[in-house]
Amino acid sequence: MTEPDSAPTPSDSTGSGKLGRPPRFVVLVALAVVAVAAGWSAVWYFGTQKADAMITAWLADEAARGRTYACGERSVGGYPFRVEVRCTEPSVDIADAKPHVRASASGFRAVAQVWNLTHVIYEIDGPVRIEGGNKRRPAFAVDTDWDLLQGSLRAPGGQIARGDLAITGFTAMPDPAVGGPGGGATVTASRVGIHGRKADTAPDAHDVDIAVDTIDLVVTPDGMGPSDAVDLSFVGRLGALPYPPPRDPEAFLAAWRANGGSVEVGKLSATQGETELRAEGTLTPDGAGRPEGSVTIKLAGPDLTTPGSAGAFGGLAPVMALALRLAGRPDDIEGRTAVSGTIEMRDGKVFLGPMPIAELPKIF
Predict the structure, then answer these.
(1) Of 39, 211, 320, 337, whose CA is between 20 and 30 Å from 21?
(2) pTM value surpassing 0.85
(3) What CA–CA distance (Å, rounded) separates 283 from 310?
(4) How far, in Å, CA of 7 to CA of 11, rounded?
(5) What is the pLDDT of residues 137-161, one digit of tens each?
């Protein structure tokens, strides 16, 4: 008698070593992912090419106008969602400015979303050196530095519609080896903010709304000790600016005056120690590059009760306090006792009533 054959046959094996076909939807999803990735890579590539072409064209146009921008090395990256431009040791040479201006920095970076190249965010690394005049024998040189400088530009249609700049830990110091000692002042601030945008006026008008604020602003003239820190805030409008703006200050002033240019002081606020100043009004440039017009001011602080006790704002506050006490009227600043009055700027002087209280420097 023979034993029954109980050994498994090959067909009884549970694993044949072969894999079945993947489901169709998995294949379709994988192909879709590959297609999207390839398409987006093409979009990013053409975006970077467009950005690089825009930069190259702008540099060529500026060079034709006598403004040369250069990088030690320029690179474009940022895949997959951004376009980043990096520039090592950037420099600018503006030959059509009067005086001739040159500047150099440590680094520059700019970034934009690949789908919106008209909104650019940038950073500049200090220190930055600015020189003016002849290259071999410059008339002045200023060295600036900061902890962080960031800005943004919005330029739909190729024209700047808005710009913002924020600086922390700012320092600017004249180079005494160039301008000589006693010819300038060191300026520091813990924060500086500058914001500008095209005003909502007629399409062909070139009015700019501007806001400036500084915290712990200190100005130290050469050979003197530092002043007390000033917190400054300005909100206003620059009206009828010439476009395109001439680089020569005298030509700019002439064109601005011809356009009926103005500075609308919506709100000016300055605080130094316990002294507070508020101002509002409208100014226009005169033929000598000085402001003229009328401004209403308010002043509060110790210089009102004891003129000269604080000597705020470079000694201007005691003079203003004395004049306001004689020709002004009682007022208040957020509940603090103050005096106010209207000052007139004309013929290079500041008048409160018939009394001249200060000389006006040339702006241009």
Answers:
(1) 39
(2) no
(3) 28
(4) 11
(5) 888 899 999 999 999 999 887 788 8
